Amino acid sequence: MTETPPLSRRGVIAGATGLALAAAIPRARAAARTINIGYFVETKPTMIAKAQGWFEGAAKAKINWVEMGSGAQINAGMVGGSLDMGIGIGSSPAAAGLSQGIPYKVVAMLDNIGPAEEMTVRASEHITQPSDFIGKKIATPFGSTSHFRLIGFLKTNHLSLSQVTVLDLPPEQIVAAWKRGDIDAAYVWSPAKAELLADGGAVYKTYDKLDAEGYVIADLFVARNAFAHANPEAVAGILGAYGRALDMYKTQPDQAAAIVGKAAGVSAAVAAANLAEYDFVPLKTQLTAQWLGTPGHPGAFAAELEHTAQFLVGQKSIRKARPLTAYQKGIDTSYLEKAVA
User: Fold this and answer.
1) What average pLDDT does the chain have?
2) Looking at 180, 196, 212, which one is the last position of a domain?
3) Does 205 share its domain with 221?
4) Span 25-82, pLDDT tens digits
5) For residues 57 and 39, what is the distance between their CA atoms, to the nearest angstrom?
6) CA-CA 20 to 30 A from 46: which of 89, 225, 253, 340?
7) 92 and 226 part of one domain
8) Which tens digit of pLDDT belongs to each residue from 233-291?
9) Alpha carbons 284 and 91: distance in angstroms, whole number
């Protein structure tokens, strides 16, 4: 297993900057049997499979792990063909990628995010209602699900971007800015969120109302089309390894939290608390109509991607959304079916 250092953290969805980022990642060579996977350092069961070498064992290949700062960076790697898979890309950048014709498919879900990504405010600022955000500085990784939720929060509470300062920062820079006192709030995931909460932060609950308004967010597995077509067993194996890690979390939560915490650089207690916030949808359940569906019978989640794309058009993040059928075709659960079988 090899590890490639993080890319430049400026979030992009596509374009010249994205192509430049993509060029920074080593390209996979079929003869070397190396798979390039973009991933995030997160407190999730994926870290178990990564730390234990299960992904490599199931894929029967070496994996070059490339740490990402946002889902937009996964899109950049896919555009250049230098990433084969992305683990943990959010539904917002995935919707953007499918809208722009990036040659990949959603092959599985990692989780339904729910309250795991949430607004964190500096307790000393006494932010207790939407109007208290006026004049405040809020950080989030642009192009991420957290960015999608933050903009949704502002929109549903009739706050304009001229009333707040929204800063584009990746998770580790959010933590640094928080410690310097440069920001008043952040919308981000753990372990960054956990660090903010431990350093004078407080949760400002938004997720329940945003979910009800249609701002549902999830983390996904994506695979580049050419790679997946040439290596179907490797893709199915990687999904199966994740399923194995998820089973471990559900049956041996303490041991799982210890492994995740060590891999993510937090305590087992923090990892356990973070893990409890996610809805990790079992692989078999993902194949139901409620979620991804089966080949030829798309599930309801495609409509969430379409809605997200329409929102991104409104935010001028992408030029146009595509018909629902495009997002249905952008989900390929054939590899998930093999993993479950």
Assistant:
1) 90
2) 212
3) no
4) 444 444 338 999 999 999 999 999 999 999 999 999 999 999 998 898 999 999 999 9
5) 17
6) 225
7) yes
8) 999 999 999 999 999 999 999 999 999 999 999 999 999 999 999 999 999 999 999 99
9) 20
**Residue in this structure with the two tokens 């629902």, named with its chain if needed:** 324
* Residue 244, token pair as written in the block: 């194995």
| Order of strands, sheet of 218-224, starting from the edge strand that comes earlier in the sequence | 2-4, 62-67, 34-39, 85-90, 218-224, 104-112
Q: Which residue has the tokens 């997200």?
A: 308
If asked whether residues 191 and 123 sit together in one domain, one would say: yes
157: domain CATH number is 3.40.190.10
259 CB-near residues (< 8 Å, 6+ apart): 47, 48, 51, 52
Q: How many domains does the chain have?
A: 2
The type of residue at 335 is Y
How far CA 137 is from CA of 121, 122, 133, 182, 207, in Å, comes to 10, 11, 8, 8, 20
